[in-house]
Amino acid sequence: MSSLREILERFVRDGSLPGAVGLLARGDQVEVAAVGSAAIGGRPMARDSIFRFASITKPITAAAVMTLVDQGLIGLDDPAGRWLPELADPVVVRTPASPVDDVVPAIRPITVFDLLSSQTGYGWPSDFNLPQVQELFNVQTDGREPQRYPEPDTWLASLARLPLLYQPGQAWLYDTSSTLQGILVSRVSGQSLADFLDERIFAPLGMTDSGFFVPAADRDRLTSYYRAQPDGRLELADGPDGQWSSPPAFPLGHGGLAGTIDDWLAFGRMLLTGGAGPDGRQLLSADSVRLMTTDHTSPAQRETGKLFLDGQGWGFGGQVDIAPVNPWNVPGRYGWVGGTGTCAYLTPATGTIAICLAQVAVDSPVPPRWLPAFWQYEASVR
Length: 382
Hints:
Blueprint: H1 4-13, E1 19-26, E2 29-36, E3 51-52, H2 58-71, E4 91-93, E5 103-105, H3 112-116, H4 131-136, H5 152-160, H6 176-189, H7 193-205, E6 225-228, E7 234-238, E8 258-259, H8 261-272, H9 286-292, H10 299-304, H11 306-309, E9 313-314, E10 319-320, E11 334-338, E12 342-347, E13 352-358, H12 370-381
Helix pairs in contact: 1-12, 2-6, 2-7
């Protein structure tokens, strides 16, 4: 049977990836492989190389919200408009295919639960041609370019000028709700999302390399990021002195973090232990972890986002497997993928954490070849 290193090196040899770091962990048993280079023609990839997490940021942001729930500062049934007044009185397009000026009132407020479960009515459906979705592209721009975003209040004001695509709670829609979660954390706590995460999650877990930008002293460990061209060539999209070289105006809760594979491992272990940090202190309650890793979708809600969910469910900030569509899908498996070529999942039933960090853009809901190969390997040794 091939090793993890052999699996990943195959994609370096064929030019699909400059490099990658993969990790499988069960308890104290950890298999790690760092292959290829951190940049084409650059230094070798290392276990402590720093990657743009992209959407594997989402579970971390959801955990931040749940710390506020645990404190009693917010409740899942609370109207989000209490802290996000821009969304206190939303309107909804009459039908998903209606023009953006053909609207009806929302039948109920958007709640904190809607934000956490991606059921606010804002976000990406499977059909990108809908008029409201075309307008959303002008607001929810590519999260892999965080410096393009204005500061949070300006961004939220722009979003609030758009009607919802669906009534609150009616449909699962991708991405935007996680951005809103980050603003919610900031407004409830009175801190920036970056400072809140540093204090409440990163420092207690020893996630020393995680943040919304990479300081100059660590930038030699930041991998370069590429986009594959139609002819298979890899074109540089962002280098160490690019988008992550300075603090952004808007710390993006849906995909703005960078960090190392051991940082995300520490976060995954916290979830597997029911919210406890390495010193035994509870960062999250066991109930909050259970809510994060439980599917909260109905078949009708999943239908609107089937392009992304591929037959699985969604908890808070991440996918929850509900159907054995592929060998790696285990009921209760929780995690997600990122548009920079990353993925991170934990499987409570087996106590397994599987993380793969690469540096080539994923511009389609169909995963690139290296991710299914990694998941297949993880399933074979789980």
